[in-house]
Design brief:
Layout lengths: L1 E2 L7 E10 L5 E9 L7 E8 L8 H12 L4 E6 L16 H15 L4 E10 L1 H10 L6 E7 L12 E2 L2 E2 L1 H13 L13 H11 L3 H6 L6 H4 L14 E6 L5 H10 L4 E6 L17 H13 L12 E6 L13 E6 L7 E9 L3 E3 L9 E3 L26 H4 L3 E4 L7 E15 L5 E9 L5 E10 L18 E14 L4 E7 L15 E3 L5 E7 L15 E2 L5 E5 L2 E9 L4 E9 L1 E5 L4 E14 L2 E17 L2 E13 L3 E12 L2 E13 L4
Parallel strand pairs: 1-25, 4-5, 4-6, 6-7, 7-10, 10-11, 11-12
Antiparallel strand pairs: 2-3, 3-5, 8-9, 12-13, 14-15, 14-24, 16-23, 17-22, 18-21, 18-23, 18-24, 19-20, 19-22, 26-29, 27-28, 28-30, 29-30, 30-31, 31-32, 32-33, 33-34
Amino acid sequence: MRTVNEFPHAIRAVDHFEIPMPDGCRLAARMWLPADAEQNPVPAILEYIPYRKNDLTAARDIVMHPYVAGHGYAVVRVDLRGAGDSEGLMRDEYLQQELDDGAAVIDWLSRQPWCDGNVGMIGISWGGFNGLQIAAMRPPALKAVISCASTDDRYADDVHYMGGCLLIDNLSWASIMFGRNTLPPDPRNKPDNWRDLWRRRLEESGLWLKNWLEHQRRDEFWEHGSVCEDYSAITCPVFAVSGWADGYCRSVFRLMENLPGPRMGLVGPWAHTYPHIGRPGPAIGFLQESLRWWDRWLKGRDTGIMEEPMLRLFMQDHAPPQTSYEVRAGRWVGEPAWPSPNIERQSFFLSGGGRLAREKGGEEPPVTLRSPLWVGLRGGKWCSYATPGDQPADQRADDAGSLVYETEPLKNDLEIAGDAALELAFESDKPVAMVAVRLSDVSLEGSVTRVSYGLLNLTHRDSHETPEALVPGKRYRVNVPFKHVAQRFSAGHRIRLAISTSYFPVAWPTPEPATLTIHPSDCRLDLPRRSADQDDRAPVAFAGPEGAAPLDIETIAKAEEGWTLTEDLTDGTTVLTVRDSGGTFRLVENDLTITSDGTERYSFRGDDYASLRGEIGWTWEMSRGDWRIRSVTETVLTASPSHFHIEARLRAWEGDKLIQERKWVEAIPRQLL
């Protein structure tokens, strides 16, 4: 990334101020704005998230927000109620209180002397979610949104469930927030009441994993905040962004298809990160693209951005299977709309001998499938953060426990862009069963790179709202959607379809092992083929990434990240360990030292479904001078055929004194899951 030190506008920073809410609660904010903004008001841009403006996001923010401010905007970072230095409590994601506060913040910003009355919202993940959700409330001053790595459907496409299957990321994310919710306000910013605010957080923030496991179907809990319930509510312009390695790329396509107002979409090769720091690369000049968007919709300038393709996609080339990539080869392409006139469905049929054929063959005998629990160990993470180990490894090991169909070597290149789908005809011997499907690129050397995948809880075959148990022995036909992707399969390579009945630890398995009887002659794989004669002579192009000067950080202990797979051959125990240590570092600007250390372990023994276990621990420490706090959170998830079982513990210290200890033991009935 190129560092920019001089901007069109001199800027000033306000490290901490507070915005009053209608009920008297005060939200903590940080701001960068042109030095003369009170004499020459500018539009405001809000990022509204719970991740602590002066410490946990400080390094990211300082590269991004001063850059935009230097081009004529007041950029404001606000911590949610109950997070960072903000007062109040945060008891879950996207509650109505959060959205009401956000609308109140926008109104407050629009009335400040340095603001010209126009406000935009930008955010990634949580901030991308509430940007869409608040846009649906139509606060008058909100004129445009940039929503990155977010969703329009909190049940179908979030960290909690996929295809009605329980994602392990649900446990991982709940445990991350369990730890972060134990952190206090900074005494430097809240000298009079930081301890009282902290103790209330420790006592009342709650166990979010319990909340999420109590809602296993698409009910009112998930409908709240899902803007797909009424796309027409969003009338302001929306720029939706994601990456193929991110968990949220499908939402971009639905937003392009369904939003009624001006909109643009961008999907790169990236994991869960902003595109100017995007990995896998290539990263792009996203801050420059953002300015073109803001200048068009907040300042009324014709930047030409709306004359460009509605949807810009990175068409990936083949890459050997790796659990981490620095960069992906490929090219940018543009689509004028979504659905695109350049995409047609191309069918492949399941034939004898494991062939995936363009022509439907004769009647094939049914085949049975019951996958071992180790299928999925090389599936990576539902939402990659581009950390070592979290993308899919070579699929040959997982495919050994799966039903596999494969094309002959391709005579010509084949490009797809969009969502593949499998029509599957089957019977089950159990009332609850799931299916995992994977689309892979088989190289000339035989290595297998996963391109996309899909999950479906087969009791959700007709509805996520009202699932129904399977009748053992009854024949069903279902559609299993894959994640969207843009991928070029090279001539000479093969396309592989793999089907399994489990996919741990991407998703939690069914209550007991199920055997599917699959009828290949009644199955069909549909690929979204992109026209070979599509005119890409004027390709989409982006400037290189730029940003403001980085934060001064002193590294005391290095971060430690990675995935390790171990198998005990004496008793058949398999353990996947994920290290997520942020190390120890000091923020020089505010003399705050921070340590974060997380470990996740997912294990099972042989094919014993009762042995499945997920356990996650997080330790946080913060210190400045004589002030020091520490928290430790632990979460264990197991399951019986009838219930999910949670054991959790929280401990917090001020100095050497233990000031809070809480324990939870919860049993939550399984609902056809």
